[in-house]
Amino acid sequence: MATRNIYETSFDEDVQTDTESNQCPECDGRVTTNAVETVCEDCGLVVDEHQIDHGPEWRGFDADERERTGAPLTATRHDRGLSTEIGRGADANGNELSGQKRQRLARMRREQSRGRFQSKAERNLAHGLSEVRRIVSRLELSESIRDQACQLFRSAQTEDLLRGRSIEAMAAASVYGACRCNGRPQTLDDVTDSARVVQSRVTNAYKTLNTELGLPAQPVTPSAFVPRLASDLDVSDQIRQRARQLADAFESTGATTGVQPSGFAAACLYKAGHERGQLLTQSNVADVANVSPVTVRTHRDTLDKLAV
């Protein structure tokens, strides 16, 4: 059987002897080459430097350029994104596959999907994380919220909080919990509308997460809802600023304690619109804030009594 020297190319050695010109041009001394330069061991003459590195480039000089090390680890996948996905359709060059190769890939894809999950817990984790990604996409939230929601769902499974509860409800509660921890103006109704379970189950799941995991949930103020509601109502910047001023003023007095933030923000926009000459109807403002017109009128009366 033919054999070869495994160190024939000596690619993994830091220092090697230059086989082509192993003599120094100045003193005829011994010349060695390391990863940076070629030097003479006797006189120290630098014969060559800045050699071409024929290895892979591990950096990306452009934001759209992919690194050769592959995609980074992510918390949005049950396996941190390390599993392989078998594609469909054409090959790497864009050529259409034959029927025999498509059948072969279909069999490989089926067996690969069966081997992705080592246990029932991993299958539940994958289902829950996919539900979290779906809800985040529907709500158009940021990637940081998505990653935190996925990590929150993973922590809930680790603490055995999924037992006896719906995976969809816990996924929706994880998204709502991530929004609350970051002070996002997202109501429970918004998350429930994108979820596949009723609001009561999402509420119970969120209470469990908040109690068992001790979430650092921040109280959402009415002023945080003003920009979102103003954008939905398409009001002017003057009305938006006046509504924000009203909300900030009443938050400092404590008048907003115990009230629904979105409803109070809607009342601030309603009052600011009337002050600036844009007559907003109570029904339209209530629909945008997902509250009843009675709530808007009640908070409007409070604003009139404590006028700023």
Outline the secondary-structure elements.
Elements (H helix, E strand, L loop, with lengths): L15 E2 L13 E3 L3 E4 L5 E4 L49 H16 L5 H20 L3 H16 L8 H15 L6 H7 L4 H15 L8 H12 L3 H17 L7 H15 L6 H8 L3 H13 L3
Antiparallel strand pairs: 1-2, 2-3, 3-4
Helix pairs in contact: 2-3, 2-4, 3-4, 4-5, 4-6, 7-8, 7-9, 8-9, 9-10, 9-11, 10-11
GO molecular function, one term: translation initiation factor activity
Keywords: Initiation factor, Metal-binding, Protein biosynthesis, Repeat, Transcription, Transcription regulation, Zinc, Zinc-finger
GO cellular component, one term: transcription preinitiation complex
What would your notes on this structure say?
Helix content is 50%, strand content 4%. The protein is mainly α. Strand 2 and strand 3 form a beta hairpin. The termini are far apart. Mean pLDDT is 80; it is low at 1-20.
Give a brief outline of the structure.
With 308 residues, this protein is mostly helical. It contains 11 helices and 4 strands; from the N terminus they run ββββααααααααααα.
Cα-based radius of gyration, to the nearest Å: 31 Å
Strand composition percent: under 5%
- Taking pLDDT < 50 over at least 5 consecutive residues as the criterion, the unreliable ranges are 1-20
Strand order in the largest sheet: 1-2-3-4
Instruction: Name the CATH superfamily assignment of one domain.
Output: Cyclin-like
Secondary-structure element pattern, one letter each: EEEEHHHHHHHHHHH
Q: How many H/I helical runs?
A: 11
The coarse overall form would be elongated
CATH architecture descriptor name of one domain: Orthogonal Bundle
Mean pLDDT: 80
- How many β strands by DSSP? 4
CATH class of one domain: Mainly Alpha
Characterize the largest beta sheet: strand count, sense, and whether it forms a barrel: 4 strands, antiparallel
Q: Which structural class is indicated by helix and strand composition?
A: mainly alpha
Determine the N-to-C terminus distance: 95 Å
Protein name: Transcription initiation factor IIB
Function: Stabilizes TBP binding to an archaeal box-A promoter. Also responsible for recruiting RNA polymerase II to the pre-initiation complex (DNA-TBP-TFIIB).
Keywords: Initiation factor, Metal-binding, Protein biosynthesis, Repeat, Transcription, Transcription regulation, Zinc, Zinc-finger
GO molecular function: DNA-binding transcription factor activity; TBP-class protein binding; translation initiation factor activity; zinc ion binding
